[in-house]
Amino acid sequence: MDMQMPTDTHAEIREEVRKLCTRFPGEYWRELDARRGYPTEFVQALTEAGWLAALIPEEYGGSGLPLSAAAAILEEIHASGCNAAACHAQMYTMGTVLKHGSAEQKRKYLPKIATGELRLQAFGVTEPTSGTDTTALRTFARREGDKFIVNGQKIWTSRAEHSDLMLLLARTTPRDQVKRKTDGLSTFLVDMKAALGKGLTIRPIRTMMNHNSCEVFFDNMEVPAENLVGEEGRGFRYILDGMNAERMLISAECIGDAKWFIEKAVEYSKQRVLFGHPIGRNQGVQFPIAKAYAAMRAAEALLRQGLAKFEAGLPCGEEANMGKMICAEASWMAAEACIQTHGGFGFAEEYDVERKYREARLYQVAPISTNLVLSYIGEHVLGMPRSY
């Protein structure tokens, strides 16, 4: 079943990604899921093929592809039944260094990130007490000569155990000493391998899906001053710069998941025969799948509009935020239709539906919750009073 748009400009990329993904069937992911393992072989294959360096400019060893190409890569990974969450941050987290890092930082880190010699996959922002209220974070970096001393805690720092570098957001000026609460936050590149056991502690969090999430603790952890990205105190703005790209790439993964669920549901509805005919003939089975397909197509169209605006250098916050919300909803609608179509077999591990079902649920919460998206729309799109 072909669910690609006829105007797709990245058909060759999609085909090559699909070929790679055939080397990692459901059995591979089920085994990892059972032991909460990290897909090292899968990540290595993507790295060697150059897909994780898609957005890094050619001068630093990447492909210099547009955001829509990166979206196509991630979509196809998920549409193939695989999961890019183990490594997708390698694509977009480097954007802060690319846009705001010094010339020396770009030369030092980007080529090694492009080859996979360095993994920049950990993003230290969220904290237990502040959640999505980023300006209320408490992790503090105090300047002492040619280094910063960091104390605090982060949570839901995915891939911390499997990353060489972390992009860390911390306060460098107390909140009560700045004019705006968004001031006084700074971004740092943390060498996690060097800091581990020397002020850095990583504690895995077991969750309903195999997402490699962790708590991270900083106890007088030293970070060289040269690892400050951009200007001190402007880190919040740097983080915001990359959020539209992140949300659209996550949206692409949701579209891929939706396509996988729909294809699985359609195939099963044709093969499963009850009361003398395929269950797909029953409107009670057929209509939820059809509705999920329509929702996926609508979400996909908005995502493509957002990608086009991003690549044209136009404001795309509306499309990035709304796209993330409705792409996640379309994915979940397809997941519900798929598991209902399979009935009891949908809960059996060997069908892969229950694994993908658990994975798909995450994106209605992360990387931004639906309520915050609605608040954004209300305030920044509709011009209503700020709700928080």
TrEMBL record:
<keyword id="KW-0274">FAD</keyword>
<keyword id="KW-0285">Flavoprotein</keyword>
<feature type="domain" description="Acyl-CoA oxidase/dehydrogenase middle">
    <location>
        <begin position="122"/>
        <end position="221"/>
    </location>
</feature>
<dbReference type="InterPro" id="IPR009100">
    <property type="entry name" value="AcylCoA_DH/oxidase_NM_dom_sf"/>
</dbReference>
<dbReference type="InterPro" id="IPR006091">
    <property type="entry name" value="Acyl-CoA_Oxase/DH_mid-dom"/>
</dbReference>
<dbReference type="GO" id="GO:0050660">
    <property type="term" value="F:flavin adenine dinucleotide binding"/>
</dbReference>
<dbReference type="InterPro" id="IPR036250">
    <property type="entry name" value="AcylCo_DH-like_C"/>
</dbReference>
<dbReference type="InterPro" id="IPR037069">
    <property type="entry name" value="AcylCoA_DH/ox_N_sf"/>
</dbReference>
<keyword id="KW-0560">Oxidoreductase</keyword>
<dbReference type="InterPro" id="IPR006089">
    <property type="entry name" value="Acyl-CoA_DH_CS"/>
</dbReference>
<dbReference type="Pfam" id="PF02770">
    <property type="entry name" value="Acyl-CoA_dh_M"/>
</dbReference>
<feature type="domain" description="Acyl-CoA dehydrogenase/oxidase C-terminal">
    <location>
        <begin position="233"/>
        <end position="366"/>
    </location>
</feature>
<comment type="similarity">
    <text>Belongs to the acyl-CoA dehydrogenase family.</text>
</comment>
<dbReference type="GO" id="GO:0003995">
    <property type="term" value="F:acyl-CoA dehydrogenase activity"/>
</dbReference>
<protein>
    <submittedName>
        <fullName>Acyl-CoA/acyl-ACP dehydrogenase</fullName>
    </submittedName>
</protein>
<feature type="domain" description="Acyl-CoA dehydrogenase/oxidase N-terminal">
    <location>
        <begin position="7"/>
        <end position="117"/>
    </location>
</feature>
<dbReference type="InterPro" id="IPR009075">
    <property type="entry name" value="AcylCo_DH/oxidase_C"/>
</dbReference>
<dbReference type="InterPro" id="IPR013786">
    <property type="entry name" value="AcylCoA_DH/ox_N"/>
</dbReference>
<dbReference type="Pfam" id="PF02771">
    <property type="entry name" value="Acyl-CoA_dh_N"/>
</dbReference>
<dbReference type="InterPro" id="IPR046373">
    <property type="entry name" value="Acyl-CoA_Oxase/DH_mid-dom_sf"/>
</dbReference>
<dbReference type="Pfam" id="PF00441">
    <property type="entry name" value="Acyl-CoA_dh_1"/>
</dbReference>
